[in-house]
Every structure is written in structure tokens, then in C-alpha cells.
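ok trying this again, last paste got cut off
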Amino acid sequence: MILAYGPDRVNIEMLVEGRWCPGYLEDVWCVPNIGRHLFLVLSATEHGINVIIKRQQIMFQYDGQLVATGQWITDAYTMGIRDVVPREAAEFSIAAALETLQLWNEPLGCQDKCHVRKVPTLQVMSEQDDQ
């Protein structure tokens, strides 16, 4: 079994004709233990990319513009791609299961969990009980 995370969208820069151009890849799966980054040409074509393969080079075009290139090295095409690291970290909240009630209810003006002595039970009545 291979562990993978995703799919996700990854912001990248691609080396095209000697300069780094911003872009992104969609439907990316992170496979930490594989040791290589894999790129599926079929997936690119499904997103509207035209692929031109020559003996020593592969080129990707979108709307007639060259957006990525790769060179044949040893046994595969190698592309100049690097991750774009966000300038600011994303903010998110994490709470342990026991803290979740208080963490989310108090800012909303709900009662603190220490004041709740007994949790009411919910009684469900069927249509037969109604008759």
C-alpha cells in the first residue's frame, strides 16, 4: 500500500525559455515515499493542454502559448518546475475533542460547558405514538 494525499491544487513556477513563469497544477496527489514527482500527460490534455513530444524535448501549450517544457534525460522527460511557497501561513483552528464544544460555542455567545450540569435527552416519537 502507498500513502497519498490529495487531490489538491499546487501553485508552481515553470522554467520556460530561460525564465520562471507562474502557474498551477490541478488534481495533484502527494506521495511522500515515492522519491520522484510524477506528471501525467493524459491529465494535462484533459485540462486543455496541447502536448508536443519530440525525441529530446516535450512542450506544453495552452491557448497557443508555451507554458512548460521538458528535456529527455536518461530515461524520462525532466521539467523545470518548483513549488511556490506562500508568503504568509494559512490560519486554521484545531481543537481536541474535549475542547471543541467550548472553543466553538463561547465565541458565539453560547453557554460555557462548566455551567451545563445535565445534557437533556432527545425523545423521538413515531407516528404510532402520536395516535
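PB: full thing came through this time. Residues 5-83 form one domain.
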